[in-house]
Design goal:
heterodimer, A: alpha/beta, six-stranded parallel beta sheet, B: six-stranded antiparallel β-barrel
Chain lengths: ~425, ~475
């Protein structure tokens, strides 16, 4: 069994092992939420504290990630202990853990991994402990299926007499019925999709009512990025792991002269102040052709300089498609292009972030929300290149923050990079057309 | 109208609620409005009955109707049993494929296959063939065309429904068919299936005339069941049509968060026979009554309010997924179909110019000339409705299939359908038509509502004295 945890992860793991209630664990970028969740499940089972543990994620990708994490911790023994269930089309075919939906097989296993909406198909079994990931993107109602599998009928009957007077909200009701769960997520990285814009995410809902704790050591972000992310999202003490902090981009070859300012390896964050034109695409999306071409050209140059992983992130699906189209034309299909929503759980050595929005009204729109910007700037292990109009962001506003509102996340990010954590560079001639 | 205007339309529509009521839900409301409320908003799960056999028979019928049944159609056959046997023989490849398909899916999903599965499927299929040859063929000449499993959306009336089959005759006249494959019982003309047939008539009229109240193309409607068929007398009584429309409005109002007056009918087949959901129905009626009177304990009332509010949020989320259908319909009404489709294509709301290329197992490949706009929003895993655009039919009333995108390039779209037999059906039905793609959705609303129902009942069980619900 291989499980390496830092002191923060260990502290939280011990708290969750000892605590027989519902609790929330907030995990800023790169702090090892999935590792803690998987480690917790293994420890609970290994110490005989639970007969069966349920691991739930909102997306198939995250559920698969749990499976891989178990394999990393337990090796081939993972196959004996764990099972992946849910929708077969969402299962990673390479996952070294069996997929099954039959009740008999599920009952034989100690750790069951599923997506949230597939829980309805589980046989009626009770789980002594549950770990619920991606609770930042979920809403309250998405937590109720896993919680239902934690309800203990015996505990419920014991409390019948006292319950009527003492239970005053849904969370208390669930707790009183014996559900033990660790809800993991980060409300500053993702928001639930909800018809009500101000709706709470599932993790915020738990944090308001139950004890919560936060991981604070990032194993992904070098010092300049962890500092930027910490100040930008106001985490209150996020720092890089000592071995990660001084990490900088290393290249096999020197960049060409025209790209030298953009790629400069010693600078962790570089903002290329490009002045492309935004265009509406699709029912609600936006695209910026100049930025898309710029991203593709930088990627094309980078692959000649290094074999390091590259990911392109943008807020808009239309921009993603256009960047992908240009990359395909350059024969760079292997470079991942993703939206900020799809980027959760993704990391790469070099990340390019295309801002897209650029208009005279300075309306940043959805591109200026805290969660989207936070995700975009926190995927990189060595180098972050932001491509977009700087003035647009420093003077931008979103409908969530009025023009006079000084704490616009977009403005805050631009200010932090300009003043403290990076450099703003003019685009070289090659990126201007 | 520019693509910006399409976006503006989206923005306008996003401020309204775009709920669609399914024909089945209208029929449920017709039987008892409380039964509908059990589903939406309360989220009481449907019974645990396994529909594997019924669904397989449906799949077989959907492919046999336009092929083997239509080819063997004889008006007033001398020996309907021999004819049914003959169709049965001709359909053996379809039956075999559907059974294998169902078994594959059941195995993949870890479902238990009933002991006499194959026999039951073949028996029920044969029963339906007897019903068709004995009743339908006796009355009607061979139709020009048969089409099956079509989802029709009439957004103006907030209604959507899936039609089992249409038979098309000369002069654009149609026969509407509903298969009853759940069991081999005799059909009782008073239940939910009858109301569903009437609700589907409204959609059929919309498909064939553009107006749900125009009955000029309606030749007949029938519920085909085991060894027989039921034909409602046409023209239908106006009071029945009005009831369906009234209940459609009721269901729509409920989905939109309204509180229309709800009256339990003199006889409800669930509650009055103490069926599976009668305890839940009684519970929610009492719960609402006491809430209205203010007699619930405050802490329980607070949890109750919270859960009900969340349920309506889930319903609102569902309505969001229908918005593009409202935009498409609205644009077509304003600009005419041809211009509207061009504008909608520019805005990536629809994708046109495809033709069915090939099928392989459960995959169908749609091809088109490389378009001016090489960027597509159709990404793997997106759910789409593949529409075969028929002349003089509203776009959302044309033949269609539903699937999810497996692969998309500038000129090719590979769509995965749920079963192999659906790919055969798509080939049979969509081959001759230009294809338009719109986004679609999987309805997971009831699955999301169900745990709220469970916790609602749990809260009542723990927090309310027994006397509150003494019938439970």
């Amino acid at each position: 069994m291989t499980l390496h945890l830092d002191e923060e992860q260990l502290r939280i793991l011990n708290w969750r092992v000892d605590n027989k209630d519902i609790g929330a664990v907030v995990g800023p970028p790169g702090c090892g939420k999935t590792t803690v969740g998987s480690g917790l499940a293994v420890k609970i089972i290994a110490e005989g504290l639970a007969k069966r543990v349920l691991l739930v994620a909102y997306t198939n990708a995250a559920a698969n990630e749990f499976g891989w994490e178990f394999y990393n911790i337990l090796g081939p023994a993972a196959e004996k202990m764990c099972i992946r269930t849910g929708n077969p089309t969402g299962v990673d075919p390479l996952l070294p853990i069996t997929f099954n939906r039959s009740a008999d097989t599920l009952l034989e296993k100690r750790i069951i991994i599923s997506t949230n909406l597939s829980l309805k198909k589980l046989p009626p079994i009770r789980f002594d402990n549950m770990i619920i990931d991606e609770a930042g993107v979920e809403r309250l109602e998405h937590l109720l299926w896993p919680f239902w599998f934690g309800v203990d009928r015996e505990v419920q009957n014991e409390h019948r007499e006292k319950a009527a007077a003492e239970i005053d909200d849904l969370m208390e009701l669930i707790s009183r019925c014996g559900a033990v769960a660790t809800v993991v997520g980060d409300p500053k990285q993702s928001r639930p999709i909800s018809p009500v814009r101000t709706d709470y995410s599932a993790i915020e809902w738990v944090m308001k009512r139950k004890r919560s704790d936060m991981l604070r050591i990032s194993h992904r972000l070098p010092d300049m990025l962890s500092g930027l992310v910490n100040e930008f999202a106001n985490y209150g003490g996020l720092k890089s792991a000592p071995e990660i902090a001084p990490r900088r981009l290393t290249l096999d070859y020197m960049p060409d002269v025209e790209y030298r300012q953009v790629i400069q390896p010693d600078e962790v964050v570089t903002w290329v102040d490009i002045n492309g034109v935004e265009q509406p695409k699709g029912p609600t999306s936006w695209a910026n052709d100049l930025e898309a071409k710029g991203c593709a050209k930088i990627c094309n140059h980078l692959v000649h300089l290094t074999r390091k992983s590259i990911v392109v992130v943008t807020r808009f699906t239309a921009q993603k498609q256009i960047i992908r189209y240009y990359l395909q034309r350059m024969g760079l299909e292997s470079i991942k292009v993703t939206t900020t929503t799809g980027a959760l759980g993704t990391q790469a050595d070099v990340v390019l972030f295309s801002l897209v929005r650029n208009n005279p009204e300075r309306n940043v729109g959805a591109a200026g929300t805290l969660q989207d910007l936070n995700v975009a700037i926190s995927r990189s292990k060595e180098k972050l290149i932001i491509i977009g109009n700087f003035d647009m962001m420093i003077n931008g506003w979103t409908s969530a923050s009025s023009p006079s509102h000084r704490k616009s996340p977009a403005r805050n990010l631009a200010r932090l990079i300009d003043c403290k954590y990076g450099s703003i560079v003019q685009p070289p001639h090659i990126l201007r057309d | 109208m520019s693509s910006l205007a399409v976006r503006e339309l989206y923005r306008t529509i996003s401020k309204t609620k775009g709920h669609l009521v399914q024909s089945r839900e209208i029929a449920t409301t017709c039987v008892c409005p409380y039964l509908f409320k059990m589903c939406y908003p309360f989220g009481v799960p449907p019974g645990e009955q396994d529909y594997l056999i019924a669904n397989t028979v449906h799949d077989i019928m959907s492919l046999a109707m336009p092929t083997t049944i239509l080819h063997n159609w004889q008006q007033d056959p001398t020996n309907f049993e021999n004819l049914a046997r003959s169709i049965d023989r001709d359909s053996s490849a379809i039956v075999e494929k559907a059974i294998q398909d169902a078994k594959d899916v059941a195995n993949r999903e870890g479902k238990t296959i009933p002991t006499y599965f194959e026999y039951d499927v073949q028996d029920r299929f044969h029963g339906l063939l007897i019903g068709i040859s004995k009743k339908l063929m006796k009355k009607y000449s061979r139709p020009k065309r048969a089409i099956t499993e079509i989802t029709i959306t009439n957004v103006k009336k907030f209604q959507e429904g899936r039609i089992d089959a249409f038979l098309e005759f000369d002069d654009d006249c149609y026969g509407l068919i509903d298969w009853k494959t759940n069991d081999i019982d005799k059909f009782k003309g008073s239940g939910i299936d009858k109301w569903q047939l009437i609700a589907n008539f409204l959609l059929a009229n919309y498909r064939y005339t553009g107006n749900e109240d125009n009955w000029s193309k309606c030749l007949f409607g029938s519920v085909v069941f085991y060894e027989n068929a039921y034909f409602p007398r046409l023209p239908l009584k106006q009071e029945k049509i009005d009831k369906v429309k009234y209940d459609r409005k009721f269901a729509h109002d409920v989905l939109c968060g309204g509180s229309p007056y709800t009256q339990k009918p003199a006889f409800c087949p669930v509650c009055d026979r103490e069926g599976e959901s009668s305890s839940d129905c009684h519970f929610y009626r009492e719960d609402s009554r006491m809430s209205g009177q203010g007699t619930l304990p405050p802490n329980y009332a607070s949890i109750r309010r919270h859960l009900i509010k969340r349920r309506y949020l889930v319903l609102d989320e569902r309505s969001e997924t229908h918005k593009h259908k409202f935009v498409i319909s609205n644009m077509i009404e304003r600009l005419g179909e041809s211009i509207a489709l061009q504008e909608l294509e520019k805005s990536d709301v629809v994708y046109s110019g495809f033709r069915l290329g090939s099928t392989h197992e459960n995959l169908i490949t749609l091809v088109r000339e490389v378009s001016d706009n090489p960027i597509t929003f159709l990404e793997p895993s997106k759910v789409v409705r593949i529409i075969g655009k028929e002349d003089s039919r509203p776009l959302l009333g044309c033949i269609n299939e539903k699937g999810f995108v497996k692969d998309a390039t500038e000129s090719k779209l590979v769509v995965s359908l749920d079963k192999k037999i659906y790919a055969d059906r798509a080939k049979e039905q969509l081959l001759d038509f230009p294809i338009v793609i719109i986004r679609d959705e999987n309805n997971l609303t009831r699955r999301t509502l169900e745990p709220m129902h469970r916790f609602h009942r749990l809260a009542a069980d723990l927090m309310l004295p027994r006397r509150f619900f003494d019938n439970n």
